[in-house]
Q: What sequence folds into this?
């Protein structure tokens, strides 16, 4: 069968799904991520994105004449909980899954979904092996992978910031350590920078002064960290207390307002990666406006990616004409869909074509995209 391309705006998507009446059974969309705990700021915007899209789709008649039902599960970004979450969603008869959020939790759950032949799409799990290993043909994502952002971080640090001696730290997790290992690889490959320290820290520890002292002793002019905002906030705060001049550079796991709030003034001057500014895309502006109207605030991290993933999953079911696994995964790879992150489809590995990262600098308590 020849490949075909479908370009759909949100309006066209909703109209194509609208039919007279709907069947008694529902299409079940699972939503898995951290909805409690320290990493909830990453999971709650994704959950709300799914709720907004499903509300709009159901109001227009649903998908294939069936209403979409949300099955929401909290995994707290913990692998051991994620396996239980996945098992529960499979038991409840989920058709597709939006999630998980953290790479470690995603990896732990994917095998369960794979065995059940359920397509899964994450807005935020960036570990390269999730798509590049070939182990998870049921996995897709609407965000670029860690190797891409690690290469960008290294190029920026060398060419724009002029660093020569770099300490690389990580939180020992699949996401943070994976990012840090790519950073180390690209730094060493450049031949222009010396990696003076490569070490893991313990997530949740109250004090990182000993490792900060190591960074200081090694006379690093930059500290690159792989991990999430709770640890990053403590690292920059302790660096400031020790009056260190080393630059702090990190990943998209730190680009969240929680980092700005917890670290306060210590966050100023930090560099982090994140999905590139999407405000010029009309559907992005529409999605953000919907969020503000519904919740009275600006959306948080990975909202646009989750909104896009929800649209892509439901569009694939519509184009496939069923929830059949083979038909849905084929539709994801062969059909473009217009989303808040752009006009996308997915390559043979499951990565979205056309998405990418930018570097942001914290200035006066806000993230400013570096051009």
A:
């Amino acid at each position: 069968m020849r490949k075909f391309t479908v370009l759909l705006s949100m309006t066209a998507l909703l109209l194509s799904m609208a039919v007279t009446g709907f069947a008694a059974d529902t299409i079940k969309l699972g939503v898995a991520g951290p909805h409690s705990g320290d990493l909830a700021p990453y999971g709650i915007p994704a959950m709300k994105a799914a709720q907004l899209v499903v509300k709009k789709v159901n109001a227009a008649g649903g998908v294939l004449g069936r209403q979409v039902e949300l099955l929401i599960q909290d995994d707290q970004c913990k692998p051991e909980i994620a396996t239980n979450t996945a098992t529960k969603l499979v038991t409840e008869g989920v058709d597709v899954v939006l999630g998980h959020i953290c790479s470690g939790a995603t990896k732990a759950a994917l095998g369960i979904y794979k065995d059940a032949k359920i397509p899964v799409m994450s807005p935020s799990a960036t570990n390269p092996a999730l798509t590049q290993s070939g182990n998870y043909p049921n996995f897709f994502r609407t965000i670029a992978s860690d190797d891409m952002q690690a290469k960008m971080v290294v190029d920026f640090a060398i060419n724009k910031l002029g660093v020569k001696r770099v300490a690389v730290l990580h939180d020992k997790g699949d996401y943070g350590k994976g990012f840090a290992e790519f950073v180390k690889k690209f730094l060493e490959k450049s031949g222009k920078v010396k990696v003076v320290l490569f070490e893991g820290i313990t997530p949740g520890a109250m004090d990182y002064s000993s490792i900060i002292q190591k960074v200081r002793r090694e006379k690093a002019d930059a500290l690159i960290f792989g991990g999430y905002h709770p640890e990053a906030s403590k690292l920059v705060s302790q660096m400031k207390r020790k009056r260190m001049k080393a630059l702090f550079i990190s990943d998209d796991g730190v680009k969240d307002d929680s980092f700005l709030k917890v670290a306060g003034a210590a966050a100023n001057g930090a560099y982090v990666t994140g999905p590139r500014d999407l405000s010029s895309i009309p559907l992005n502006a529409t999605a953000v406006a919907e969020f503000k109207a519904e919740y009275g605030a600006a959306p948080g991290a990975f909202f646009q990616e989750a909104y896009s993933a929800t649209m892509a999953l439901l569009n694939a079911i519509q184009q496939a004409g069923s929830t059949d696994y083979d038909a849905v995964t084929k539709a994801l790879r062969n059909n473009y869909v217009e989303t808040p992150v752009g006009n996308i489809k997915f390559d043979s590995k499951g990565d979205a074509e056309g998405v990418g990262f930018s570097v942001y600098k914290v200035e006066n308590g806000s993230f400013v995209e570096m051009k």
Notes: The chain has two domains: 10-143+279-353, 147-251. Residues 40-59 form the longest helix (20 residues). The chain has a mean pLDDT of 93.
